[in-house]
Amino acid sequence: MRNILFQFLKPFFLLTITFAITSLFIVYFQPSPPSSSSPLKIHQENTTTTMAARSFVLWLHGLGDSGPANEPIKTLFTSPEFRNTKWLFPSASPNPVSCNNGAVMPSWFDIQEIPISATSPKDDNGVLKAVQKVHAIIDKEVAAGTNSENIFICGFSQGGALTLASVLLYPKTLGGGAVFSGWVPFGSSIVERISSSAKKTPILWSHGLADGTVLFEAGQAGPPFLEQNGISCEFKAYPGLGHSISNDELQSLESWIKTKLKSSS
């Protein structure tokens, strides 16, 4: 009876631990507020310095999480290149999720099982519907005047999987896609839809070796898949890291985006 109860509760337990770890990370790594003796300096930029290119970063959260809960991430990007960066942290709609026994929670698409392996079932239709929503956000930003090659899509876990699909299926070259603890969420039939322009979008893929929710094998299968389809991918493995985002990963992301930014929008 205990084994049956454990199997039933296991998905909820994994999801709760994942959400708790991510939330703790965000709270822990928030920068300390300035002291009263050091007031914030607003709009005191050196006018002789060339302004950084206008850029846009879209962050996609993981299963059961929310956009606002991840907003503190942007406070870690303190380099001058991010002075003119617009950030957006949308939230997924509540949907029933198969791996959690049909429980309704924020989810970009359905997930059949946890842990997720390289051979886990795919939800192609659900992924494509979610991709359309992401593309609508990107299109709106492009229409507002942002160079598509200064647009970066980033995501953790389920959001990382959606990031990959959104970048590969967008008709234009983007600045880059950053996948954290994600996986390839679609089958071979969708590969045919990847345009030559999308193949020029660089991918940064980070995954913890101790990840028990999205297994390392699922992340490790990503780069060979991308390379086979002519897509550049930089893969980074993090020893000892479970299903969470580390400060090292975000520092690496900051440096990576800086090297991809175009000089003008």
Question: How would you sum up this structure, described in words?
Answer:
With 265 residues, this protein is an alpha/beta fold. Helices cover 34% and strands 15% of the residues. The protein has helices at residues 2-28, 124-143, 158-169, 188-191, 216-220, 222-228, 247-260, and strands at 55-60, 85-88, 94-97, 103-106, 151-156, 176-180, 203-208, 233-238. The strands form two sheets. A six-stranded parallel sheet has the order 2-1-5-6-7-8, with helices on both faces. Helix 4 (188-191) links the parallel strand 6 (176-180) and strand 7. The longest helix is centred in the first third of the chain and has 27 residues, at 2-28. It is globular, with a radius of gyration of 19 Å. One of its GO terms (molecular function) is palmitoyl-(protein) hydrolase activity. This is Phospholipase/carboxylesterase/thioesterase domain-containing protein. InterPro entries: AB_hydrolase_fold, LYPA1-2/EST-like, PLipase/COase/thioEstase. Keywords: Fatty acid metabolism, Hydrolase, Lipid metabolism, Membrane, Transmembrane, Transmembrane helix. It holds the Pfam family Abhydrolase_2.
